[in-house]
Specification:
This protein is α/β, with parallel strands linked by helices and 339 residues long. It is built from 10 helices and 14 strands. The strands form 3 sheets. It has an 8-stranded parallel β-barrel, surrounded by 6 helices. Strands 2-3-1-4 form a 4-stranded antiparallel beta sheet. The chain has a two-stranded antiparallel sheet with strand order 5-6. Strand 5 and strand 6 form a beta hairpin. Helix 3 runs parallel beside helix 4, helix 3 runs parallel beside helix 10 and helix 9 runs parallel beside helix 10. The two termini are 36 Å apart. The mean pLDDT is 96. The structure holds phosphoenolpyruvate and manganese (II) ion.
Length: 339
Amino acid sequence: MIIILKPNADAQKRADLCEHLVTLGLDVDVSEGQTSTVLGLVGDTSRVDMGSLRILDIVEDVKRVSEPYKKANRKFHPCDSVIAIGEHTVGGDEFALIAGPCSVESREQMLSIAADVARAGATALRGGAYKPRTSPYAFQGMREEGIEILLEARAETGLPIVTELMDVRDLPAFSEVDVVQIGARNMQNFALLKEVGALGKPVLLKRGLSATIEELLMSAEYIMAAGNEKIILCERGIRTFETATRNTLDLSAIPVLKELTHLPIVVDPSHATGVARYVRSLSLAALAAGADGLIVEVHNDPPNAQCDGAQSITPEAFAELSEAVNAMLPIVRGTTTAR
Ligand code: PEP
Ligand code: MN
């Protein structure tokens, strides 16, 4: 349920109302907009008498929220959420460019790619230290050592780091990480979602391989219900009957999510297509469809990458993509703000 307050509602009356709602056992989420304030109620609202709320002089309207996701719902929070990552933000005027290899393979590889993408205008650095691999015999990541290398790359470039957490037992290694990625395979690992909900760091939540948009939002709700509202959603392609690409990039998810939620959404064209030469066009399509940023795999030696070489673009191609993004942004957004 949401209660829309009248503009300039009396502060004392508002505080009294919130207190009353809390005594009914409800959690009250306050969203201050430019013109009005929305009180989002989470909990058993079946005993709330909508009529008696509507007659209060500070109340504009009262509505039931039928969707199962509440805190992630745009009705609860009409303005876009803007999430700070290092010196940058995701979800506001800036367009996020998160770039780096699929996995951290060595110090030299990571530092070299980090320097290249930083120079080309990346706003954050990606790199997997703990890798979810389909085969148990494939490279599983450099683990703690990989995180150490990422921290060194951050120290050298100033770029915040985004890296995947697969198991709560690995959490101690993530204390310095800027953004915790929850990968597609773990989107419905509810124990992990609750744990990152208690973390207080931004979470990049990837859509599951076969997850609906509502399921993605319910996973975000898990993290939010546990206390962490700093979530960046990621559309990374879903499994369809098509085999020409690794997955099918669901571009429609971008405007749909923009309507349903206030959380920012970035697009991963690398895992969506599995093919480096398709990354540029789908990146620009994602920007045109209203995405808040991209997360792109970049490797300095794609043919010899330990993981996902076929979908990794070179640092040169990333620099060209970054230029194209900056040329296109003012056209799409009608603003001159680049990043
Ligand atoms: C990744 O980002 O390297 C990754 C494994 O992504 P996803 O979970 O989307 O497959
Ligand atoms: Mn990958």
